[in-house]
Amino acid sequence: MTQNLMSLALSADDLDAIDAALATLEARLTGLVALQPDERRGLTKMGDKSEAFCRQTLTVLEQNPQVIPPSFDLAEARADLAAVDVLRPRLARLRRLTERAEDSETALGSDVMNASLEGYALLKVSGRNQGLEGLRQALSARFGKTSRRAEPSAPAGS
After folding, report:
1. Domain locations in the chain?
2. What are the CA-CA distances from residue 49 to residues 7, 53, 56, 59, 83 (Å)?
């Protein structure tokens, strides 16, 4: 095998610990929401540039409570900002871990695909003498091409 980007062997104990950690995360983060794509698109978002604006606005409102109507919940806005502050570093760690896991899945899949292509090439070359032609043909379905047969031409003068 000419490509081996990585190897990964997780023991049963490793898998149990990972599953337990994921279960803990799921149990502790029950307050997270799942938005539908159209809901997500319709939201006003606080990006990097607008975060300073949001923080300043909440501070000014806190310092000037006389401008706040009773329907405006400044305490909830402050609590939401505090939740953003505590969630963000954990989310960054989860993103890094997810990116590494996705890259590892891609690397492992690439290793398997390259090994399979090399193995298929071996079957094409030496499998005929080993009684493996039928199996090789079954595997060739992955490379299936639709053949275009020449349409029968209509007789001239019809």
Report:
1. 47-65+72-127
2. 42, 8, 12, 17, 19
Q: What is the mean pLDDT of residues 126-144?
A: 74
User: Percent of the chain scored above 90 by pLDDT?
Assistant: 72
Least confident of 36-45, 50-59, 120-129: 120-129
d(CA 140, CA 124): 10
Burial grade of 139 (CB within 10 A; 0-12, 13-18, 19 or more): middle
Q: What is the CA radius of gyration of the chain?
A: 30
Tokens of 32: 């997270």
Residue keyed to tokens 């599953």: 19
3 state SS for the chain: CCCCCCCCCCCHHHHHHHHHHHHHHHHHCCCCCCCCHHHHHHCCCCCHHHHHHHHHHHHHHHHCHHHCCCCCCHHHHHHHHHHHHHHHHHHHHHHHHHHHHHHHHHHHHHHHHHHHHHHHHHHHHHCHHHCCHHHHHHHHHHHCCCCCCCCCCCCCCC
